[in-house]
């Protein structure tokens, strides 16, 4: 186990069984993400990989719970945009180490996802976090950026043979474009083979259901498990952090 | 009963509004209306906004008001679930306060469609809210200049324009200057737009129709009321 300066661990730490070094280290990794400590996350992730710890445990029981807690704190008003972005950057440091190793094990990508922030909406912090997490979990991402029209999104799905279309919106005034995009997918007869998932701060499960989306992500951190469920991929006993 | 404010009835109304619109909305003060303003920071945490406003509404519901007016739009669902068991709630049917400053949801929509990457500033936002420069300074204080620069870039990289809305309530020149400084700071374009008091007037004085929702006693605010699906 890596010893670090105690003063870095002033935040509340999730209880763990005494003597369980693995749990303790995963818990530390989680806290390092919450504490936005990029180098700390990088060093500890490298060390855990070197020690032969299960890659999916590092991801799903260390890094992602850390990001989940950061997102929770953001929602409660304890974290603001800078803290959320910095935690997200710390998460990326860990995922950059894990991603090539996970790809080696998986060989094939889990699925192709076309993602974009909807028309007239420029916000991409949440979307970019979803991309980091999906890529880290073995999905191939086609990022269409922001302010993307239904036509462009549907065309990208068609061109790339994507199985999932993921859409994000931060404004209540642009949410309707998710509906228009799903309608276009239906009109083109693609809605059977392409699953849609939607998310973003103002999006609610009721809204997602009303517009005919196949899945709703309450927060970015639930995106990987939601995407796996949509494609019928088993979680292999991994912890699921869905809605 | 008509939604329209009836002068003969002499109702007492309470306006609960965001501090950024204080100057613009208070122009329509009269002896039948009282105002209470809330920190702009509530808009950053929609859950807290609903809680804070509900506490005020519950308190006001016990008093001798005839109705409660909200100086808030849907504000990222910040008012969803709000209700008054004993009073009517009067709310502008808008997504956020920019429609109020510009005078109508249509004016805002037109701007949003032409230039989706617009950061809007008004005298109230500059004085009581935040600007990209004030955000940068606050981030730099907490995390140092390098990190502040990175955070602000991540947050603002898709914005292409700063708009200053001249709401005509005070000498706009000093505020316009600050808005321009913000545009220069971000290296994006600047544009000045003329605001309109129409929607503020409709909200406080009436008529309560078209862009103004009147919720009956016990009715809760729902997201669907603001969407055109």
Structure description:
The complex is a heterodimer of chains A (243) and B (229). Chain A has two domains: 9-106, Methyltransferase, Methionine Synthase (B12-binding Domains), Chain A, domain 1, CATH 1.10.1240.10; 112-230, Cobalamin-binding domain (Rossmann fold), CATH 3.40.50. A five-stranded parallel β-sheet of chain A has the order 2-1-3-4-5, sandwiched between helices. In chain A, helix 7 (176-187) links the parallel strand 3 and strand 4 (195-199). Chain A is α/β, with parallel strands linked by helices and 243 residues long. Helix content of chain A is 51%, strand content 9%. By secondary structure, chain B is of the alpha/beta class. Chain B has two domains: 7-96 and 197-226; 105-194, no CATH class. Chain B is 39% helix and 18% strand. Chain B contains nine helices and eight strands. In chain B, helix 8 (173-186) links the parallel strand 6 (161-166) and strand 7. The two termini of chain B are 28 Å apart. The chains are: A alpha/beta (243), B alpha/beta (229). The interface between A and B is medium-sized, with 30 and 31 residues.
Write the layout of secondary structure elements.
The complex is a heterodimer of chains A (243) and B (229).
Chain A: H1 21-34, H2 38-50, H3 55-76, H4 81-106, E1 112-117, H5 125-136, E2 140-143, H6 150-160, E3 164-168, H7 176-187, E4 195-199, H8 205-210, E5 215-217, H9 223-230
Parallel strand pairs in A: 1-2, 1-3, 3-4, 4-5
Helix pairs in contact in A: 1-2, 1-3, 2-4, 3-4, 4-5, 6-7
Chain B: E1 13-18, H1 22-26, E2 33-38, H2 46-61, E3 67-71, E4 88-92, H3 97-102, H4 105-114, E5 118-121, H5 123-128, H6 132-143, H7 145-156, E6 161-166, H8 173-186, E7 189-194, H9 198-205, E8 212-215
Parallel strand pairs in B: 1-2, 1-3, 3-4, 5-6, 6-7
Antiparallel strand pairs in B: 4-8
Helix pairs in contact in B: 6-7
């Amino acid at each position: 186990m890596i010893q670090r300066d105690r003063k870095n661990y002033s935040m509340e730490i999730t209880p763990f069984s005494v003597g369980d070094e693995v749990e303790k280290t995963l818990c530390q990794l989680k806290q390092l993400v919450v504490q936005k400590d990029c180098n700390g996350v990088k060093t500890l992730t490298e060390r855990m990989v070197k020690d032969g710890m299960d890659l999916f445990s590092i991801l799903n029981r260390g890094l992602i719970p850390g990001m989940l807690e950061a997102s929770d704190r953001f929602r409660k008003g304890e974290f603001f945009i800078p803290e959320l972005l910095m935690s997200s950057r710390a998460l990326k440091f860990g995922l950059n180490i894990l991603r090539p190793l996970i790809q080696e094990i998986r060989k094939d990508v889990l699925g192709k996802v076309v993602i974009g922030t909807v028309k007239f909406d420029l916000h991409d912090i949440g979307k970019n976090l979803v991309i980091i997490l999906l890529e880290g979990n073995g999905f191939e991402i086609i990022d269409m950026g922001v302010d993307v029209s239904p036509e462009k999104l549907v065309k990208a799905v068609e061109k790339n043979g994507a199985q999932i279309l993921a859409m994000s919106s931060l404004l209540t005034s642009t949410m309707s474009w998710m509906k228009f995009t799903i309608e276009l997918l239906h009109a083109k007869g693609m809605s059977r083979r392409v699953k849609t998932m939607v998310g973003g701060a103002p999006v609610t499960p009721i809204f997602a259901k009303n517009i005919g989306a196949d899945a709703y992500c309450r927060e970015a951190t639930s995106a990987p498990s939601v995407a796996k469920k949509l494609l019928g991929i088993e979680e292999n006993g991994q912890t699921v952090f869905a809605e | 009963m008509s939604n329209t404010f009836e002068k003969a009835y002499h109702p007492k109304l309470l306006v609960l509004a965001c501090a950024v619109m204080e100057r613009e909305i208070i122009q329509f003060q009269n002896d039948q209306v009282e105002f209470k303003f809330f920190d702009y920071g509530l808009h950053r945490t929609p859950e807290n906004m609903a809680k804070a406003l509900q506490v005020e509404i519950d308190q006001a519901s016990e008093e001798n008001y005839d109705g409660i007016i909200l100086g808030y739009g849907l504000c990222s669902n910040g008012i969803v679930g709000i209700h008054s068991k004993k009073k009517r709630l009067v709310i502008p049917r808008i997504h956020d306060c920019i429609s109020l400053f510009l005078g109508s949801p249509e004016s805002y929509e037109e701007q949003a469609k032409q230039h989706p990457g617009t950061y809007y500033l008004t005298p109230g936002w500059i004085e009581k809210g935040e600007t990209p420069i004030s955000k940068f300074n606050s981030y730099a204080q907490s995390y140092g200049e390098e990190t502040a620069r990175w955070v602000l870039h991540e947050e603002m990289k898709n914005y292409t324009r700063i708009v200053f809305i001249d709401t005509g309530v005070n000498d706009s020149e000093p505020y316009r200057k600050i808005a321009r400084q913000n545009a220069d700071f971000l290296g994006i374009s600047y544009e000045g737009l003329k605001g309109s008091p129409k929607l503020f007037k409709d909200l406080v004085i009436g008529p309560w129709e078209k862009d103004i929702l009147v919720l009956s006693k016990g009715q809760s605010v729902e997201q669907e009321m603001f969407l055109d699906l």
